[in-house]
Amino acid sequence: SSSLTEVKEFVKRLRRQTDLCNMAKTVRALLNNNSTVTVLRSGLHAVFNEQSLDVTKNLFRDKFRNPKKRQKNIQFKCLKNLISSLTSSTDIRDLLSCFSSDLQTFVIKPSRNKEAFKKQASDFMLKWNLLLSTVGKILTINRTDSFG
């Protein structure tokens, strides 16, 4: 029983690693194409300039009605930082470094202890996934050229 559990966990880790490798290959190919990066950046900038993200922004704000506990849209800051560093000459390692730096600043350093870190990290991931899925939907529906 315990061996089966260990094997299942190993398979999950292997799948994640494979998914990350495939994603890295795709991003590298995308970053090498100047016109694709230009179209993607313009689409992403348009998404932020439109009212499309207002629903998502309101969801983020509504969770923290207490001003002391309200987060300052960390996920939007991280995404905007990634977009600002996105150019056709950008290496994927530079993007990951940018994101890692933001995570260090906004999630890891502010955590006072292990439990606070777990809570903050899970909250960040939940909202990050929500933001990226919303941006993906908007790009797919309104900016199909940004998706190649």
Structure description:
The protein is built from six helices and no strands. Mean pLDDT is 77; it is low at 62-70. Helix 4 packs antiparallel against helix 5 (92-108). The chain has one domain (1-141). The longest helix is centred in the first third of the chain and has 30 residues, at 2-31. The chain is mainly alpha-helical. InterPro entries: RFX-like (IPR039779), RFX1-4/6/8-like_BCD (IPR057321). It holds the Pfam family BCD_RFX. Residues 4-148 form the RFX1-4/6/8-like BCD domain. It comes from Neopipo cinnamomea.
Summarize the structure.
It contains 6 helices and no strands. It is an all-alpha fold.
Which terms would index this structure?
RFX1-4/6/8-like_BCD, 148 residues, 76% helix, RNA polymerase II cis-regulatory region sequence-specific DNA binding, RFX-like, RFX8 protein, mainly alpha, DNA-binding transcription factor activity, RNA polymerase II-specific
The SS-based structural class is mainly alpha
Q: Which descriptor suits the 3D outline? A: globular
Largest sheet: none
Radius of gyration: 18 Å
Oligomer: single chain
Extract low-pLDDT stretches: 62-70
Order of helices and strands: HHHHHH
Number of helices: 6
The end-to-end span amounts to 46 Å
Helix proportion range: over 70%
